[in-house]
């Protein structure tokens, strides 16, 4: 099983509609919140990560299983 624990500053990528997107982990989300107007159903048992997208500078949230650690 892959390591699905990420820390602030980790460089990650994920599949997007236009190929692979890249960004930097800003924080681990462990409670329900909103990111850019979208509900994020994070919890202690199922955390998600707020990521700053490299290309746009916007924040997004993803589950750890959608992320892949990249070289910095």
Radius of gyration (CA) equals 11 Å
Major beta sheet, specifics?
A: 5 strands, antiparallel
Helix content: under 10%
How many β-strand stretches? 7
Q: Judging from the principal axes of the Cα atoms, what is the shape?
A: globular
Instruction: Tell me the strand percentage band.
Output: over 45%
Q: Could you give the order of strands across the largest sheet?
A: 6-5-2-1-7
Main structural class: mainly beta
Q: Please trace the helix and strand order, writing H or E for each element.
A: EEEEEEE
Give unreliable regions as ranges: none
The N- to C-terminal Cα distance equals 22 Å
* Helix run count: 0
Give the mean pLDDT.
Answer: 93
Explain what the structure shows:
This protein has strands at residues 11-16, 19-29, 33-35, 38-40, 48-53, 59-62, 68-69. It has one domain (11-69). A hairpin with a 2-residue loop joins strand 1 (11-16) and strand 2 (19-29). It has no helices and seven strands.
Element layout with pairings:
Elements lengths: L10 E6 L2 E11 L3 E3 L2 E3 L7 E6 L5 E4 L5 E2 L3
Antiparallel strand pairs: 1-2, 1-7, 2-5, 3-4, 5-6
